[in-house]
């Protein structure tokens, strides 16, 4: 089980990566905005493909959106946009144990693809817990470190604070 979530504000609708731990293998992953078959999608992607993609061109520039990718205990992978389930894949059992570093706002594997045009706030990764299992009201307060939080980045006065309360080794 896992949850990866963040608030995004795109100033242009160019292909971009929001949160990424992608190493070019099936064990890496990313949440991205991309054109797929001439429709813009938000997708949870690995080297093996795109999963739980949104079905339509719902994202507009210059608007804040809460995005969450969640895999539950039944191996259902879901994408929520502003609390509404917009895409899902069932039977998603892929082991996501890639060794790449986590990046926010840029793609690890292909940094040349560029940085996100816009803003990201309250990025949180929770490994071992499906925080959301049905429609939700997007959080209006800064996210907090809950059980199994492995990364929490809150933006405060243009600064970034890691509040995951966990020890990291480099």
Give an overview of the whole structure.
This protein is an all-beta fold. It contains no helices and 12 strands. It has a 7-stranded antiparallel beta sheet, with no helix packed on it. The chain has a 5-stranded antiparallel beta sheet with strand order 5-4-3-2-9, with no helix packed on it. A hairpin with a 2-residue loop joins strand 4 and strand 5. It starts with a strand and ends in an 8-residue tail after the last strand. The mean pLDDT is 82.
Which features would summarize this protein structure in a list?
170 residues, mainly beta, seven-stranded antiparallel β-sheet, five-stranded antiparallel β-sheet, globular
Task: Summarize it.
By secondary structure, the chain is mainly beta. Helix content is 0%, strand content 45%. The two termini are 25 Å apart.
Annotate the secondary structure layout.
Layout lengths: L1 E9 L5 E6 L7 E8 L2 E8 L2 E3 L12 E8 L5 E5 L2 E6 L13 E2 L13 E10 L21 E8 L2 E4 L8
Antiparallel strand pairs: 1-6, 1-10, 2-3, 2-9, 3-4, 4-5, 6-7, 7-8, 10-11, 11-12
């Amino acid at each position: 089980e896992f949850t990866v979530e963040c608030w995004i504000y795109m100033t242009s609708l160019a292909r971009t990566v929001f949160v990424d731990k992608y190493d070019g293998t099936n064990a890496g992953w990313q949440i991205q905005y991309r054109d797929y078959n001439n429709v813009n999608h938000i997708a949870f992607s690995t080297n093996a493909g795109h999963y739980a993609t949104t079905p339509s061109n719902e994202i507009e520039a210059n608007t804040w959106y809460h995005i969450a990718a969640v895999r539950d205990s039944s191996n259902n992978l879901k994408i929520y946009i502003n609390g509404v389930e917009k895409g899902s894949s069932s039977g998603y059992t892929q082991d996501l144990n890639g060794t790449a570093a986590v990046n926010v706002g840029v793609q690890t594997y292909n940094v040349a693809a560029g940085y996100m045009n816009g803003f990201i706030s309250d990025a949180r990764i929770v490994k071992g817990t499906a925080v959301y299992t049905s429609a939700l009201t997007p959080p209006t307060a800064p996210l907090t470190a809950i059980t199994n939080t492995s990364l929490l980045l809150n933006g405060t006065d243009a600064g970034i604070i890691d509040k995951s309360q966990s020890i990291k080794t480099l």
